[in-house]
Write a structure and sequence with these properties.
Elements lengths: L2 E5 L5 H12 L7 E2 L14 E7 L14 H9 L7 E7 L12 H11 L3 E3 L2 E2 L11 E2 L2 E2 L2 E3 L8 H17 L1
Parallel strand pairs: 1-2, 1-3, 3-4, 4-5, 4-9
Antiparallel strand pairs: 6-8, 7-8
The structure holds flavin mononucleotide.
């Protein structure tokens, strides 16, 4: 079972979380910065993909992240990822950007779905304080939102719970 962690970052917080998650998930490949990857076709070689994406383009419908993910979205949507499992974590600020909390997760989620991947790692919204988020799908977030700006004290627990959830859902 090959599982990779991919992230993009502007100020380093998503990279830090990717490293911390890697420490909790033995057997998963070391995190890779999307900015160092020219071609997303390497996703074809994996059974599971964990993606970290921050939100910078507040209120935008498209290219919400403002990172290297934005220019990869169409390529991801064009892959054939049937049978592969994908989980997304997002970095945002639920206090300052409470009406757009972690909006970028859902955009990435939609392109992986388009590629036929099975999306896992959904998280209930109960323990978060925010007004609106495009990343709420049904009753849940379509991934794990993390807030290193306003709620960093909750990150360890959120990461531990999610890593346990992923071990079950990704099956390793
Ligand atoms: C100009 C600016 C715009 C931002 N827009 C949003 C936003 O719309 N939604 C959100 O949840 N967080 C927003 N954030 C917070 C960042 O997503 C957050 O600081 C994140 O941890 C940055 O991750 P990075 O260090 O990996 O780039 C914004 C921050 C700045 C400075």
């Amino acid at each position: 079972m090959a599982v990779g962690i991919y992230f993009a970052t502007t100020t380093g917080k998503t990279e830090d979380i990717a490293e911390r998650l890697h420490g909790l998930l033995s057997g998963v490949n070391s995190p890779k910065d999307l900015a160092d990857i020219s071609d997303v076709s390497e996703f074809n070689d994996l059974d599971g993909i964990i993606c970290g994406i921050p939100t910078w383009n507040t209120g935008a419908d498209s290219e919400r992240s403002g990172t290297a993910w934005d220019s990869m979205l169409e390529d991801i949507g064009g892959l054939s990822l049937g049978g592969k499992k994908v989980a997304i974590f997002g970095l945002g600020d639920s206090s300052t950007y409470t009406e757009n909390f972690c909006d970028a997760m859902e955009e990435l989620h939609s392109y992986f779905k388009k590629a036929g991947a099975t999306m896992v790692g959904y998280v209930g919204k109960g323990s978060y304080t925010f007004e609106e988020s495009k990343s709420v799908v049904g009753d849940s977030f379509c991934g794990l939102p993390l807030d290193e700006d306003s709620e960093s004290d909750l990150t360890d627990e959120r990461l531990e719970n999610w890593s346990k959830q992923l071990k079950g859902e990704l099956g390793f």
